[in-house]
Amino acid sequence: MTMLWAGRFAKELDSIVADFNSSIKFDSRMIEQDIIGSLAHASMLGETGIISMLDQSKITSGLSDILLDIKSGKLAIDYTQEDIHTFVENELIKRIGDAGKKLHTARSRNDQVALDLRLTLKQDIKAIYQKVKYLLSELVELAKEYTTTIMPGYTHLQRAQPTTFAHHLMAYSSMFIRDIERLKDCYKRTDVLPLGSCAFAGTTYPIDRSLVAQKLNFEQIAFNSMDAVSDRDFVIELNSCLSIIMMHLSRFCEEIILWSSWEFKFIELDDGYATGSSIMPQKKNADIAELVRGKTGRVYGNLMAILTVMKGLPLAYNKDMQEDKECVFDSVKTVSACLTVFAPMLCSIKVNKEAMAKAAERGFINATDVADYLTKKGMPFRDAYKITGQIVAYCIEKNYTLNNLPIESYKSFSQLFASDLYEAIDMKTCVEKRNSFGATSKSSVLEQIKIVKDFLDKMV
Ligand code: ARG
Question: For the segment 439-451, what is each residue's pLDDT rounded down to a tens digit?
């Protein structure tokens, strides 16, 4: 195999070393972006007179043919080549001869690979963005159905205060909105043209970077050529956005797994999204949710990998940076697959309202409301809190709930208690009276749903 850089060397690369050095097995994913980038570069070279119009048109038709042949399967990628850039250039030269050798004028693989990666990740970000958007819209539809479905809310995984299933689901809608905004932001910083930076120092040729930016639809042009070929922040940033998405999905999955256990029985997964056991006939396992939770580790690992690769690199390009692609491509693929299965899995759950209501009745989750009742009758909150704690202890000992403890017993703790207490600490009242902005009441949750729907309507 003759390398692009063969002139300086007396001997060919050892085949094992060539294989070790090669990136084509994973950068071939960028073949279309590589060709599109080269088409823009060539037409700039022609328009600025750096190469002749004739050479430019030969390059353009040669590259276009290569793209067509790759798409139709007529041309197979040669995986013995060093990378996808080399493959395309060699193929072009094979097809059009000397004109093909002019394509790399005023360009280096350093700015070429940065360009290809940015073009690829811009598309990937858009695709993930659409998937999170879809999940968010499905989530809101689901939440709408459960605005009066009371369940216990938890802190420390201990029953804490009553809430509704819709309120709980809508918590995740806030997270997904932030995920979408992070992706949008990350896109902005990915949408910067590195081409024209060449090896790192720019070029003596009269190139027109604005023209290339225009042709390739880049919003900005990297203003320092050394940074442009050294920077992989955009890869780190996307890996970080993807890690946060996975963290959210993973927490959601953890709850789905808990809720579908016999201990909770709040939901039942659709048969299409659960699996059985090879030995225990009764089992219905939440494997899909567990896998999404598990794959989170892999995506975090990819973030750690690229952070670590970059941490000690001197400017400008170093071959270490070839390690940037596999980790981010793997994360994109993983997150995309997780989002694809997660949304329909979530939307097909069967909700067990009775189990949720029953769980809400046990666990003294309206104790805060007993304390608030006394506070509203004039007792300082700290005193009310203490008395309520004593009442809870009494109920546990005598096997009462706060709702069925007789009023005489209440009065023995404080004369402020009267029969209107039961209405005040009824679960429905507890939820409905929490009507502050962002809270659990139906009207508060409907407001949240409206906010998310407005957000979705404004999304492109
Ligand atoms: N395959 C290389 C990569 O992915 C392309 C850039 C090569 N540049 C170089 N100076 N060797 O980073």
Answer: 999 999 999 999 9
CA 84 to ligand 1: nearest atom: 1
- Out of 28, 87, 319, 327, give the residue to mutate to test ligand 1, the one with the largest number of ligand atoms within 8 Å of its CB: 319
Residue with the nearest Cα to atom 3 of ligand 1? 322
Q: How far is the CA of 57 from the centre of ligand 1 (A)?
A: 27
Does pLDDT of 244 surpass 80?
yes
- pLDDT the model gives residue 6: 73
Residue 317 Cα: closest atom of ligand 1: 10
Pocket test for ligand 1, best of 20, 25, 79, 109 (most atoms within 8 A of CB): 109
Task: Assess if residue 4 is contained within a domain.
Answer: no
Cα–Cα dist 242/337, whole Å: 12
310 and 435 housed in the same domain: no
Distance of alpha carbon 447 from alpha carbon 437, whole angstroms: 8
The b/e string for 312-343 (b: 16+ C-beta within 10 A; e otherwise) is eeeebbeeebbbbbbbbbbbbebbeebbeebb
Residue 284 in this model has a pLDDT that exceeds 90: no
Kindly state whether residues 371 and 333 are assigned to the same domain: no
Mean residue pLDDT of the chain comes to 96
Domain coverage including residue 330: 110-356
One domain, residues 285 and 216:
yes
Q: Verify that 315 and 402 share a domain, yes or no.
A: no
Closest by alpha carbon to 238, among 186, 171, 282, 280? 186
For ligand 1, pick from 309, 322, 326, 329 the residue to mutate: most ligand atoms within 8 Å of CB: 322
**What confidence score (pLDDT) does residue 191 get?**
98
Q: Is residue 84 part of a domain?
A: yes
| Total domains present in the chain | 3
Rounded CA-CA distance 380/304 in Å is 51
CB 162 within 8 A of CB 371: no
Cα(333) to ligand 1 centroid in Å equals: 23
Q: Which two tokens stand for residue 214?
A: 């225009």
pLDDT at 227: 98
pLDDT of residue 281 exceeding 80, the answer is: no
**Distance in Å, CA 99 to ligand 1 centroid:** 23
Catalytic residues: 156, 277
* Residue 293 CA to ligand 1 centre (angstroms): 34
Q: Which CATH number is 409's domain given?
A: 1.10.40.30
Residue that terminates a domain, selected from 289, 322, 356:
356
Tell me, yes or no, whether 1 lies in a domain. Answer: no
Atom of ligand 1 nearest to the CA of 325: 4
186 in a structural domain: yes
Last residue of a domain, one of 67, 83, 105: 105
